[in-house]
Amino acid sequence: MKIMFSAGEASGDLHGANLARSLRELDPQIELLGMGGKEMAAAGVDIVYDIKNLGVIGVGEIIRKIPFFFRLRDFLVDTMRKEKPDVLVCIDYPGVNMRLIKVAKAAGIPVVYYILPTIWAWHKSRGKTIAKYTDLAISLFPFEAKMYEDMGTNVIYAGHPLVDTVHATMSRREACAHFGLDERKKTVLLMPGSRVQEVRGLLPCMLEAAKLIRKEAGDVQFILPKASTIDEGLLDEIIRASGVAVTVGEEKVYDMMNLSTAAIAASGTATLETALMGLPTLLVYRVNCLTYWLSKVLVHIDSIGLPNIIMGHRVIPELWQDEVTPENIAAAMVPMITDKVHREALHKSLAAVRRTMGEPGAVQRTAQAILDFARERGAHEAIQ
User: Fold this and answer.
1) Which are the contacts of 95, defined by CB distance < 8 A and separation ≥ 6?
2) β-strand pairing of 155-157 with 111-114
3) Count of structural domains, the chain
4) 15: Cβ–Cβ under 8 A, 6 or more apart, which residues?
5) Which of 2, 6, 241, 361 makes a 20 to 30 Å CA pair with 345?
């Protein structure tokens, strides 16, 4: 059996890698190829296009890269036609995958969509496209599965894969020794995102906030996990210019979370990961003016943080756009670091997020569903 993946960001690369490992456990002879990054490559996927330079965010950035995305789509289509996979598995990244599923359907290649577009936040019309061109949709959330089902999608709820994968591999003492940190000090985790635009836009502000946090909260140390999609040179340039001492690590991000007192994170999967680790987190969201204006018009939610959306109320604080200033970041972070009562309340709320995320085993259930679907489809075509 041959399965082709299409994943386009660091989080998709991680989800794709975990899925690839589970697929291979179930079927050691399976052939895996597609678009992904170093995590998927390490999991045994033959990478036909590396995602390292893909990351864009916002409408303005997407518009400027439209010609590139058309070329990328054409390349992936040519790869599909050449390789003739039994199934195309699209992972998130709707900017490319929503186009790719249409071509796959026309070519007679069965389509599975894993980590679906967030129609509960915006672009509800994408739900109709998924229903029309996807043979099997695999949802992470019960409320999301119901929305897609109501649109006529063949959808199953498998649970969230992060419940399986988000856990520390060492104690706090061991992690501090591993990263060269002082275990006696408070630690703030800086997570400026996995896209170049995010890092350039958010990290300088985070580092200015770090100076204020040190003034108000004492001798705090800072650690930053480098996303696989970000060049180390970019981080070094921004950190050196700030004058703030920051430890940069490339792997074991959950151990970084485990040793940290609190985190400042760009909106996205990272805030759900910190929630599952029980780490108090401030979400920061800032994009260009056009993107923000369109999001205010098109997006109909009060929160953008996944923990907040899942729980239906603010579990972690959020700063949007012009609110993202060093002063506001420091004002939100200092109580997380110094106020014991405040921290305990946050930990209690974050524990509720984990309980709401469902049972372990989501990755294995997803892999089994994909294999069952592929085998049933293959048997059906053989009969015809």
Assistant:
1) 8, 56, 62, 69
2) unpaired
3) 2
4) 7, 91, 92, 114, 115, 161
5) 361
